[in-house]
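hey can u check if this looks right to u? its 197 residues, i copy pasted from the old doc so theres a chance i mangled smth
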Amino acid sequence: MLKIGLTGGIGSGKTTVAHIFEVLGIPVYYADEAAKKLMNEEKSLRQEIIRLFGNEAFKEGKLDRRFLGELVFSDPEKLSQLNSIVHPATLEDATRWMLRQRTPYAIKEAALIFEANLQSYFDYVIGVTAPETIRMSRVVKRDHTSPEKVMKRIRQQMDEEEKIGLCDFVIRNDESEGLLPQVMKIHEELLTKSVDG
């Protein structure tokens, strides 16, 4: 079975693309959702978060995502600390999940594949890209936040062109080309590769 990474900057439409693959019968591991679950449920990870960011990181026993988000997205060092404990836990969880799949290929959807230097874990990486203006308006609408806050998060991610240049497949989500034909083309190619491999 092939291990496929699916990545792209904030607001690029990774989740929409992932859902299309799921409709095609391909299982998808959502790294962000898994990380949130692990931060809430994994005892050692919770303790490490409290050690690094204080008891305020949890409110009424649940991860206070707003508090933690505001803390790490305004301080690159704190973001790096958080990633250094969450990424290994998520990777371990994803590896166990991948081993349980019985399809020609399975996907791990994650924003920070290259930033976390995880590309060697995958057989292929698919990148989803969209112009910054479109990404910005999507996130402002989705998260009910300000363009300034979105811009801050965009600036903390790897340059879009650089990221897309590292991908094996690219899906353009700029509303000029349908997503389904692009996903279908990659799907067919990956099915062929899984048989050949």
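The beta strands are 2-7, 28-30, 58-59, 62-63, 105-109, 124-129, 169-172.
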